[in-house]
């Protein structure tokens, strides 16, 4: 137990520790290098019966926990997608944690609800979306997509799924390419639609987007076979190699067959604050819903996912339950965002968006994203010009993939996987692997707010030096 004076002292110490941690990241290896079980084995098997001094707890935090942390705010974190947390967002989260408000209803924190409404108007306009979209902050793209899948299910069943269940209903179909995130598969499982009814449409073109003609043929065939097409999940900037669908073509098919369209732009959506990149999602205003994660590339630290919907009343009709104890008496026209979400409890996530947008300004955030894209393209060109390297997918915004293919190596898949491991063990940078048409490839994406132009040189040096060492 600590009193208010001790709380003040430890809060100051924590803030100092955080600033020192950030200042030293550039010299630290990006990825934790512990073996499995190292942290667990350093922890007691049972909780303490008596209170322990904060001094001891903090010391153990530094001794046991920090060595097992992969540094997601490191300037040379080039793996997965970024999960940024610049200083204004961190400060906002400190305030949120101190207040610890539960923002499920308007009355449980009016400022939280009204700030969320205004911040999502700001974001909608910044992305160039039409005014017909309304937004809600969710925990992650996974929950946003689940909400969208449930809504498309209910709309297709004329709102009978929640009340009657799926037994006895027509079998639903949902369509997407192989480039969508596996959170879509999970959402379809949890919605009761079933993985067998998740239809993968062939891709075509450099951007690896859905073949619209094949999509329409699949819908027509399913209708003839007695299935009920419920929705399409389109992808802008897919996780593996940036797969991007033609929304205009897909939405055209969807309108002809009265099918719901959800767009997963979890990573790439942030880049649409830059008008010059909006060609990647031409037709977005024709979609029924769209998710993007400000906690990836825009800098509003996790967790902060935004779901935009064309018809919020359909989302509310799908998700809202209104027992007496959750009703707000004597207030009309209010929004209770828990009725727009899977979960009832809600954190005050809008505050960090407000701090972030004001501290950087849209132009400041645009410059961060433009730098990442330019620097990623620069690295792709340097690798393309280097012996034995090939670019396997061209840059989509700041994401591209490559492969090392020396003639002296027989097992190129094994070699590239070994190269990823060796690079990550080296510690200068952190990257990840994927597969492209059955072959092992290496992903690179630039997205850390702390990244500088010089980090491209470090990445190139690490990749090429280690590749050369493996084939020496």
**Percent of residues in β-strands:** 5-15%
How does the major sheet shape up? 7 strands, mixed
What structural class results from the helix and strand content?
alpha/beta
Radius of gyration: 24 Å
Query: Would you tell me which CATH topology of one domain applies?
Result: Aspartate Aminotransferase, domain 2
Spell the H/E element sequence.
HHHHHEHHEHEEEHEHEEHEHHEEHEEH
Shape: globular
CATH architecture of one domain: 3-Layer(aba) Sandwich
CATH class of one domain: Alpha Beta
Q: Number of helical runs? A: 15
- The count of DSSP E runs of length 2 or more, i.e. the number of strands, is 13
- Uncertain parts: none
Instruction: Compute the average pLDDT.
Output: 93
Taking strands numbered 1, 2, ... along the chain, how are they ordered across the largest sheet? 1-9-8-7-6-2-3
What gap, in angstroms, lies between the N and C termini? 59 Å
Q: Helical content, roughly?
A: 40-55%
The CATH homologous superfamily of one domain is named Type I PLP-dependent aspartate aminotransferase-like (Major domain)
Task: Name its key features.
472 residues; alpha/beta; seven-stranded mixed sheet; four-stranded antiparallel sheet; 15 helices; globular
């Amino acid at each position: 137990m600590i009193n208010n004076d001790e709380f003040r002292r430890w809060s100051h110490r924590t803030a100092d520790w955080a600033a020192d941690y950030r200042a030293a990241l550039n010299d630290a290896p990006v990825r934790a290098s512990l073996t499995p079980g190292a942290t667990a084995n350093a922890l007691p098997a049972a909780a303490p019966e008596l209170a322990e001094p904060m001094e001891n707890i903090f010391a153990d935090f530094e001794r046991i926990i920090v060595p097992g942390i992969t540094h997601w705010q490191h300037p040379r974190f080039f793996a997965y997608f970024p999960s940024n947390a610049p200083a204004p967002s961190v400060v906002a989260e400190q305030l949120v944690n101190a207040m610890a408000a539960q923002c499920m209803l308007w009355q449980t924190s009016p400022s939280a609800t009204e700030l969320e409404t205004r911040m999502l108007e700001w974001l909608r306009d910044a992305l160039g979306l039409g005014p017909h979209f309304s937004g809600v902050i969710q925990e992650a793209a996974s929950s946003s997509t689940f909400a969208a899948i449930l809504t498309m299910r209910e709309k297709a069943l004329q709102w009978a799924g929640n009340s009657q269940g799926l037994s006895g209903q027509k079998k639903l179909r949902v369509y997407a390419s192989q480039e969508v995130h596996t959170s879509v598969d999970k959402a379809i499982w949890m919605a009761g639609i079933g993985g067998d009814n998740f239809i993968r449409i062939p891709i075509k073109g450099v951007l690896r987007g859905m073949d619209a003609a094949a999509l329409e043929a699949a819908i027509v065939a399913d209708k003839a076979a007695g299935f009920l097409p419920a929705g399409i999940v389109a992808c802008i900037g897919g996780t593996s190699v940036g797969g991007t669908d033609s929304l205009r073509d897909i939405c055209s098919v969807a309108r002809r067959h009265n099918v719901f369209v959800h767009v997963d732009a979890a990573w790439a959506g942030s880049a649409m604050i830059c008008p010059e990149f909006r060609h990647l999602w031409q037709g977005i205003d024709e979609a029924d819903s769209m998710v993007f994660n400000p906690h990836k590339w825009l800098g509003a630290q996790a967790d902060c996912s935004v779901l935009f919907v064309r018809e919020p009343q359909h989302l509310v009709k799908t998700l809202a339950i209104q027992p007496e104890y959750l009703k707000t008496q004597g207030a009309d026209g209010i929004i209770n965002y828990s009725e727009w979400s899977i979960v009832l409890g809600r954190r005050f996530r809008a505050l960090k968006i407000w701090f972030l947008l004001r501290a950087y300004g849209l132009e400041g955030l645009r410059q961060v994203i433009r730098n990442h894209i330019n620097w990623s393209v620069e690295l792709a060109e340097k690798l393309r010009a280097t012996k034995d390297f090939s670019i396997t997918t061209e840059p989509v915004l700041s994401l591209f993939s490559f492969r090392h293919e020396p003639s002296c190596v027989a097992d190129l898949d094994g070699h590239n996987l070994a190269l990823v491991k060796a690079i990550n063990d080296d510690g200068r940078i952190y990257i990840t692997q994927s597969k492209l048409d059955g072959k092992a490839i290496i992903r690179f994406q630039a997205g850390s707010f702390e990244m500088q132009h010089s980090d491209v040189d470090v990445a190139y040096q690490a990749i090429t030096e280690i590749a050369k060492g493996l084939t020496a």
